[in-house]
Design brief:
It contains 13 helices and 24 strands. It is an alpha/beta fold. The protein has a 5-stranded mixed β-sheet with strand order 4-2-15-17-16. A 4-stranded mixed β-sheet has the order 22-23-1-24.
Length: about 450
């Protein structure tokens, strides 16, 4: 385990970028593998979760196997520029591309061994939809943490579509006997973009129309990509319908990850800095976090300049922040910021007044029990936070610094490191290597912006 030593008191500056959006990358890798023909994906993030998806897809596609196995298993260092900082006027970093030769839906074959999704619940739930469409037996598993996460929520609709799905006490490993799927109308009981995408991806293999209704809006990367590829998709508020179709190969550059950018936005706010983050995804289903930050006093400006496979992309400018105030994130709003709760909570620790995260029980089912981990982390750095059952309350007032653990959770480790930039004294954050799960180059990026940090 490595630690990050953080000395507060430095303002950040520069123009930066973040790694490609892993939520989008998972989906585009699946669509490239199931396409008929060649696809070129640029800026696919080499985060551990995305590499898990690529490695699993390699086992079910003979046409894409060599490219995906080579990419997923290559542990070389990232080329200069990935997640790095540069000055205005400098050349942008070189593109990194992945060529995938898809053989179409009917080319997918039975995997020779278990599909190991590592720590990635997104990989498991999305790939479950793909496996349900393959007329073969597949077993999906993962690490100890992933095997504790609930998977019946994906299994239930797949069974209704005609797949045989067995879970292990409601969790992974999953055994899926696929093929012979039929379209269904599925009302998702708990808003989940992963479950919605699982059903839609299975719907590509199903006979008839597949409809998903959800109680609250969630990120819509799957339906955007399918529509951009010419699919018969009808997306309405709370409802998406899809008819099966075979798409062809495509080219796309994965937008920068807004969830990763959130850490840099918070870093700028906490240090009174102005930053520009370029080439970031600005999908409206993901930008609620900017609205919440705005209520807290963080001012940002979005500049959309183009689209990639239906995804709006552009620059995000962060103004220097004069002060933070507490807010309330209602239960209906929480699904739209679920991944950003750790950084929002640590931002709230420096605000004036309390911040409430209501109906946050889903946070207990993430890579860690994030409610318990956030309470422990805030308190370890000298702040105030309270576990109120389904709710999380952060007291505000600032942090004194100290010694905290990321609890093996990538978002927790990064949130604690960012919060420590504005503490009254130095801090040590254990487990910072977990940042590689979603933000390769997190520490070098902060260092390049001027943060006084050192790995230990």
């Amino acid at each position: 385990m490595s630690a990050l030593l953080v000395e507060p008191g430095t303002r950040l500056s520069g123009v930066t970028r973040v790694p490609g959006d892993k939520s989008i990358a998972h989906r585009w890798l699946i669509l490239a593998t199931t396409a008929r023909g060649s696809s070129r994906l640029v800026e696919v993030p080499r985060s551990l979760d995305v590499r898990s998806t690529a490695a699993c897809l390699a086992q079910v596609s003979t046409t894409a196997r060599a490219a995906l196995e080579g990419w997923a298993g290559n542990d070389r260092a990232e080329p200069d520029g990935h997640g790095s900082t540069w000055n205005r006027g400098d050349a942008a970093p070189p593109e990194r591309s992945l060529e995938v030769e898809g053989g179409g839906h009917d080319s997918l074959t039975a995997p020779a061994r278990e599909l190991n999704c590592g720590n990635s619940a997104t990989s498991m739930r999305l790939l479950a939809g793909v496996a349900a469409g393959i007329a073969a037996r597949s077993i999906l598993t993962g690490d100890e943490s992933l095997r504790r996460r609930p998977m019946e929520r994906a299994a239930v609709p797949l069974r209704a579509m005609g797949a045989g799905v067995d879970t292990t006490g409601g969790c992974a490993p999953l055994t899926i006997r696929g093929g012979g799927l039929r379209g269904i109308l599925y009302r998702v009981p708990i808003a989940s973009a992963q479950v919605k995408s699982c059903v839609l991806l299975a719907g590509l293999f199903a006979e008839g129309v597949t409809v998903v209704e959800e109680p609250a809006g969630t990120r819509d990367h799957t339906e955007r990509a399918l529509a951009a590829l010419g699919g018969p998709v009808v997306a309405e508020p709370g409802r998406v319908s899809l008819q099966p179709f075979q798409h062809v190969g495509f080219t796309g550059t994965v937008p920068g990850d807004l969830s990763s950018a959130a850490f840099l936005v918070a870093a700028a706010a906490l240090t009174g800095s102005a930053l520009t983050i370029t080439g970031v995804g600005l999908n409206p289903s993901r930008t609620r976090l900017l609205e919440v930050m705005g209520r807290m006093g963080v001012q940002t400006t979005q500049h959309v300049d183009h689209e990639e496979l239906g995804e709006p992309v552009g620059d995000l400018e962060v103004e220097a922040c004069a002060g933070l105030i507490g807010t309330r994130i209602e239960a209906a709003e929480l699904p739209l910021v679920i991944d950003e709760v750790p950084i929002l909570a640590l931002l709230a620790a420096h605000a004036t007044g309390e911040t409430w995260f209501l109906g946050a029980a889903e946070l207990r089912l993430k890579e860690s029990d994030r409610i318990a981990a956030l309470v422990a982390g805030v308190r370890a750095l000298g702040g105030r936070a309270q576990d109120e059952g389904p709710d999380l309350v952060v007291g505000g007032g600032g942090l004194s610094g100290g010694h905290a653990s990321g609890s093996g959770d990538h978002r927790m480790a990064m949130a604690l490191a960012i919060a420590a930039l504005a503490a009254r004294g130095p801090s040590r954050i254990d487990g910072i290597e977990a940042a590689e799960v979603s933000f390769p180059g997190f520490v070098p990026t902060l260092h390049g912006l001027g943060a006084r940090i050192e790995e230990a």
